[in-house]
Amino acid sequence: MGEQIINVQDDDESLKRFIGHLLNDITCLEKMLEEGHIEKAPIRIGAEQEFCLLNDQFRPSDRALEVLEKINDPHFTTELAKYNLEINLDPLPLGANSFSEMEGELKRLLEKANKIAEENDIHLILTGILPTISKKELELDYLTPYPRYYALNDRMTALRGGDFKLNIRGNDELSIKHNSVLFEACNTSFQTHLQINPDDFVSSYNWAQAIAGPILSVCTNSPLLLGRELWKETRIALFQQSIDTRQSSYALKDQQARVSFGRRWAKNSIVDIFKEDISRFQVIMTCDIAKGSMEALEDDEMPKLKALNLHNGTVYRWNRPCYGVANGKAHVRIENRYLPSGPSVIDEIANFAFWTGLMLGRPKEFDDMPSIMDFSDAKANFLKASRYGKESVLHWMGEKISARNLLLNKLIPIARTGLEKAGLNNDEIHRYLEIIELRALKKTGAQWMIENYRIGQQQLKKDDALQSLIRAMWENQQQGLPIHKWPNIKPELIQENRHSTLVGHIMSTQLITTREIDLADLAARIMEWNNIHHMPVEDKQGQICGLLTYRHINKLKELEIDHSMLNVSDIMITKVTTVTTKTTIKEAIDIMKSNEFGCLPVVEGHEMVGIITIKDVLPFDED
Q1: What's the mean pLDDT in 422-429?
Q2: Greatest distance between any 2 Cα atoms in the chain
Q3: Which of 29, 60, 178, 600 to pair with 108, CA 20 to 30 A apart?
Q4: Spatial contact of 225 and 375, defined as CB atoms under 8 Å apart
């Protein structure tokens, strides 16, 4: 998706030209592999760091373009949303101190960005999903105003045929419709690249698939979305569903999502993976290409394979095969896309070193993965790790084993061998693998976040608990400590975090409602059983049409008539004043005071999404 100049028009001629170039690129790549034009050595590593921008209340900031302009460094680039940026690190040949060199470069670049950000009252944070993102920051106003992002949104929406649907079940459940791809912007990752010898690409790629689940289990850092505890690495489910172009049908059709782990082991060569993706996924974007790849190859130029790379950039494998040209030489590599951003720079580099060591230390018996492991087990391991982190029980070469024991007893030793073979010095190997080992024994980022979010919720409303959490994360990141050394949030810090300003920040969302056709006695009993003084009334369409209060129920009991057959509609208030999630708390307090209301239902459109009461707003009433 790095191409800024892209075409989204649907005219047949431009699409035909682009597909012609795409097919030409496949033919060209096959010829290059056959004739030995793809570089085999040295091994190089590279990475992309995505991060979030926060305002002074630790909510998403929409000033990414302003910060980017002031940074004025080609390492930095935009992302889908106005609250995200990305750093492209310089590729390095793998050697004695490669990972500490990359760590140093990343810290320097983050410090450069942080200095600019702090001057503008903005904070930087590394996190797989920003806990303080709300539905407000998922509206199109927050889309980075570049043509390629609008094009992506328009094409994905058109292919989807309507709104995107999210349904993620974890400890809590999130079920919602959305009209854009901006849920994808919630995801921030640390994408790592490893150059692969083309002769060994399929064996390396299949091994990368096999180890993905175990690696992810100890790297999880994204358990929260919109205040809900979901998967240990919610990014995996969120990314797939946020840009899912498949349409529901009454027919039973086997469709593959554009974001996927894959459906089988790779065969033959990297070209066959590209062929499968071209076969299964429509071209959704095109670009103008002046010179064909075969023509360039005949002129002794290394072809960029622009059409292939653009299409490959719209197919989101968690292990993505990549082709590139650097310093006039073509290479192939694997891009690891499942590692989350954070919890700290050193954690990220440790993840990268662990993955690289495993890739390079592959024992010979794993050269032919299809002969020793069912692909379904590798895929199931990945999904289990996404859901449960290092508490997962995985299938590994015919046995069931806990992720923790698999990491400690089998995979970390393989990674150590691989890093030694690559020529890393012993101090470098020990420094990074020890972090993985201690994380496996102690806490992952996801475990720390869930534990501290629950601590915050014991004293604070949900939104303030999320702010307390993100502030503590930011402060720990400033210390540069790996996650296994992070302390829990102190009680005094929790009490300092009361920064809610909007109704949507403090409203109660666990609603108990009644219908206008229900018996009034039933509603009265429900209010009594649940100790609630206000109950919204909904019509047959699920829209708010009235309100019951404890006062009205008491009056009902005083009536000297048979009220056993009265409906809720007979006694409810029909003129209901409502507010929205974007109403300020101060405005809500004024409405409640001037009208002597005990509560205000909160709506989006005609649909009720929450309620606030006098009890909710008292801490914010300055009078």
Answers
A1: 97
A2: 99
A3: 60
A4: no
Of 450, 390, 442, 434, give the one whose Cα is nearest residue 215: 390
What whole-number distance in Å separates Cα of residue 448 and Cα of residue 438?
Answer: 14
- The lowest-confidence range among 88-97, 201-210, 498-507 is 498-507
Q: Beta strand pairing status for 316-317 and 259-260?
A: parallel
Q: Position of tokens 């009056």?
A: 555
State the residue for tokens 């019951």: 548
- Paired with 399 in beta bridges are 396
Per-residue pLDDT tens digits for 196-234: 999 999 999 999 999 999 999 999 999 999 999 999 999
Sequence-distant (≥ 6) Cβ neighbours of residue 110 within 8 angstroms? 49, 51, 87, 124, 345
Residue pointed to by tokens 């409810």 = 572
pLDDT tens-digit series, residues 443-457:
999 999 999 999 988
CA 400 to the chain's CA centroid: 29
What pLDDT sits at residue 389?
98
What is the crossing angle of helices 520-530 and 550-558, to 10°?
130
Helix (H, G, I), strand (E, B) or coil at 93: strand
H helix or E strand, kind and range, residue 116: helix 98-119
Closest CA to 135 of 191, 103, 177: 177
Condensed to tens digits (0 to 9), the pLDDT of residues 192-202 reads 999 999 999 99
**Integer Cα distance of 298 and 314 in angstroms:** 28
Please give the helix or strand (H or E) that residue 467 lies within, else none: helix 462-479
**Token pair in block for residue 323:** 């082709």
Q: What is the DSSP string of 42-90?
A: S-EEEEEEEEEEE-TTSSB-S-HHHHHHHH--TTEEE-SBTTEEEEEPP
The pLDDT of residue 177 is 83
Distance CA 525, CA 527 (A): 5
* Residue with tokens 């980017």, as numbered in its chain: 68
DSSP 488: P
Q: Are strands 607-613 and 599-604 parallel, antiparallel or unpaired?
A: antiparallel
Burial pattern 255-292, b for ≥16 Cβ within 10 A else e, equals: eeebbbbbeebbeebbbebbebbbeebeebbbbebeeb
Torsion of Cα atoms, 104 then 221 then 435 then 401, to 10°: -140
